[in-house]
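Lecture 7, part 2: worked example. A protein chain together with tryptophan.
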Amino acid sequence: MQKTLLSGVKPTGTVHLGNYFGAMRQLVEMQNEYHSFVFVANYHALTSVQDGEVLKKLTLDLVMDYLAIGVDPKKTTIFLQSDVPEVTELAWVFNTLTTVPYLQRAHAYKDAEAKNKEVNVGLFDYPILMAADILMYNADVVPVGLDQKQHIEIARDTAQKFNRVFGETFTVPEPLIVEDVKTVPGTDGRKMSKSYGNVIGLFASDEEIKKAVMSIPTDSKGVDEPKDPATCKVFAFHELLQADNLEEVRKRYLEGGIGYKESKEILIDNLRAFIAPLRSRREEIARDPEMVLQILRDGAEVARAQAKKMMEEVRAKTGLILQ
Ligand code: ADP
Ligand code: TRP
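Predicted complex, written out as structure tokens:
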């Protein structure tokens, strides 16, 4: 039987190369092999985006982004998390099986606590809603970046716990982490992340690409000096893009004879060539928002039908329905 794949992205800002290489690209490749679900995690976004108009815009933008990279609504069910409110009901059931100390060990919560941020209950409970997202559709695999691995483990624990208490119900999902990408670095060498302001947008304009690349810090080695590709923050992007001239650039790094300025110029060209077709497809899609809304209506119908069925089983097993 065909295995089920599911993934979601929060609509909290512009999609960047880290999101693409870490999580989104796999969906395009895998939708041919898997029964696929992709959704916009807008309930999750509410833990940080608290402006209705902004959330609406980010949500629609993200759906367009998915379509632009090649997620095909004929092969993948694309939907909004909030179009399947059953998922919050399932999260509630899971809440009752989860202890507070267990969630206190989650990275996202620990990080927020360490920074003395005010943590809303939604953020604290974030991994449980995510477990509900995944288990609702009996997902076998969940492609995500390395930073989400713990959340998949929480989903696995939750499935096992429910199954133990109420009988075999949920598939225990596997994370799918692309080993050769792992964490995409940002322009400052840290993990590329919206929250660090070190991103290169997946649909960035030529000017934005140039500005981002120019801001990558380098050391003071001269043109002729050999350079270590493994530690150069510019080279990290060459490696990511895997352009045709990658090996040539690597050789010149090792032997000396390429300056950071030239390396950056090559990178700008390669990035522009990589992004241009994505950007033009994205612009085409943005001209037809009604088509996008129709895709979401269709996707919601498919997802919701499956969620209702699952919730009936959960309600029956937990004693929430009487007959
Ligand atoms: P951000 O850190 O920019 O807020 P998100 O947390 O919204 O990004 O991540 C969305 C998806 O993209 C997740 O599956 C995450 O693992 C993946 N991802 C984000 N940044 C990176 C990165 N720098 N490298 C690899 N994957 C990433
Ligand atoms: N937590 C994920 C992120 O930060 C988004 C997400 C929510 C998700 N629910 C999911 C990802 C279910 C995969 C499966 O990016």
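The mean pLDDT is 95. The two ends are 32 Å apart (CA to CA). Keep this in mind for problem set question 3.
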